[in-house]
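Batch job 17 of 40 flagged for manual review because the log was empty.
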Amino acid sequence: MPITVPDGLPAAAILRRENIFAIPEFRARSQDIRPLHILILNLMPTKVATETQLLRLLGNSPLQVDVELLQTATYTPTHVSAEYLLRFYETFDEVRERRFDGLIITGAPVERLPFEEVDYWPELVDILEWSRENVWSTLHICWGAQAGLYHRYGVPKIPLAEKLVGVFEHTVEDRSDPLFRGFDDRFRVPHSRYTTVSREAVEAVPGLRILSTSPEAGVYAAATADGREVYLTGHAEYDRQTLADEYARDVRSGLTPALPRHYFPGDDPARSPRLTWRAASQLLMQNWLNYAVYQETPYEQVSGPVPGSSPQAA
């Protein structure tokens, strides 16, 4: 089944060229099927690139998925035009009276700031609180995962001596969890961050389970038993070139960035990186949509109070 994207969204043309099954809104309205409604809070400055990465993964599901894009009202990004945001994005005030099957909160390049000093932190806290009763499952990515763990459970982020960047090997720690159903013993995930969370702090949270870790990157995935909160510290959605583009950007800015580890063949940034994580990334997204969202969500419509729901554990 297809993913539904807003009419005219630039990512739609990219997905069609890649043979990802995406249909425009006008056609989706004629489908006699209950689609999943997924809201994406895109906090990345590279809006179009992040949209495309996430839609690519969502589009490889047998389920029909309707996607809406959310921006913060308290911070205006500088890498995309106001017209683009007005056309394709909504603000929290425009969706707060609705409910969604799933919410994705992306990373953001603000991890070296204390959470409370981020311009849109109060708004993000409001969204996290709203999601307890209006979203069935929330998928937090990178800084979005650290922000969720901090707000909900007080798990602190820990500054690293140097940036953790590269494509690292991971293992599944809890094979009983359906989020990692079908995974190989070892799989790879890109990471790009200056901070981390400790295993001990995550393990101390009642109701949270660590599902996957990496010897080099630490805790990768944690979730509640009911799948309503999923935290991923890496960037499974990244493209082949994303880390290379970040590295080249920093070099052009006069910085001396660390070379992404296990990424460029022969550690030569002039060579094209190998794409070694796409299959695992697609499987993880499909498992989240199927087992954490589709199989569990009680919603038959996307407005009004949630019948019989209980808030997610605080």
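Reviewer: the log was empty due to a logging misconfiguration, but the result itself is present. DSSP finds ten helices and twelve strands in the chain. Unflagging and moving on to job 18.
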